[in-house]
Amino acid sequence: MPPLVRSRLERLRRQYAPHEHRPLDGYVVTMGAFGALAASAAIAAKVTGRPIPDRPATADVVLISIATHKLSRLIAKDSITSPLRAPFTRYSEPGGSGEVNEEVRDQGSSLRHSIGELVSCPFCLAVWVATGLTAGLVFAPKLTRLTATVFTATAVSDFLQMAYSISKETAEG
């Protein structure tokens, strides 16, 4: 990032959050990466002549929505995926049901911090995951639907497991 831009972002950061570390320059890079990936997908679709639906099918929207929920939580919170987050986060405590709570690492670069916030927040990740799955519908619709079906079925199973546990506790209590 050019020194003049970095200087202006630092001044803006101090004005925006004088008492808290907010890595605005890291956010700019992260937003730029998202924009570049999304634009690349759109350009690739145009160049390859892939048809883009005027209106996505309702079934695809539902499938991608539920799969996005599950995949975002899996990446951001699951114990098994913690090695993906470890360079950017620090384990804090168990989060229940195979999930963990983590804190973003403040040391190092502001880019590291912003990536830490991204990869530990299922809400933040959702737009990235939904964009990837939606692009998948354009470039590899059968494989994307199959993959999304796995995550959708897993999400439904999670809710059924929770409902079962709650009903069991209610019956025993």
From TrEMBL:
A Pfam entry, by short name: DUF1360
Protein name: DUF1360 domain-containing protein
Organism from which the protein derives: Winogradskya humida
Classification lineage: Bacteria, Bacillati, Actinomycetota, Actinomycetes, Micromonosporales
